[in-house]
Amino acid sequence: MKQEWLEGHRARKRFGQNFLHDRHWIERIARAIDPKPGDALVEIGPGQAALTREVIAMAGHETAVEIDRDLAAFLRTQFSEDELSLIEADALALDWQTVLPGRRLRILGNLPYNISSPLLFALTTVADRVIDQHFMLQREVVDRMTAEPGSKTYGRLSVMLQYRYVMHKLFDVPPGAFVPAPKVVSSIVRMQPRPVEALESVDSHYFSLVVAAAFQQRRKTLRNAVSKFLDEADIESVGINPGARAEALDVSAFVRLANAAALKAKTNAL
Fold it and tell me: Which domains are assigned to the chain?
């Protein structure tokens, strides 16, 4: 396996590129992922292959999604087809159902900060066949993803992702571990999909709408924030205080609100 650096390649701002280069952090992240031979590993944004080399050394093979054509060409000079299967595509626009169909996926990557939230939501479409996901993201985003009800960082991202995944923040990674060094601290998060049979039944359309409305203006009480969908009596009917604010509600409470909103809309349409 060649140990080369892509000379002359400058990190492209439009792709949100920051390349991991510090051996200590590369090895620590790889140990946290714990890739093994036979795993269906999919790396998003392998870049200059710092983590890719470590994963392939441990597991023998991975599939990678890379949007940058120059980096894709570089990766092909570094690994054989037996080691790396490359998908040249935008991970955000990719139909994830077509990636290793029928396999149980382990997804990993240093996600570009500028598309991290929409990409996380896009990946929920294959959560039913994902074993786990390990991502490096801006610390602020990971703190929001893993926040508990009642905290200042608890919000829409927390609720929407925690409905589908059990999440753990593992550790922070300093800016100096990257080239160029970002202006923010990064964190590693582990996301494990909840079993489908364990998920509370919810109307996904109204779940998204109600959660977004509830957190749009955090200081509003629920009676005002979700008034487009539910009145005070509706909120009380599912055991929730209309005077509460969104940040006080757990995921299950939002599920009840969403289902009540869906039922009311259906009843009104009759």
Answer: 13-198 (3.40.50.150), 204-269 (1.10.8.100)
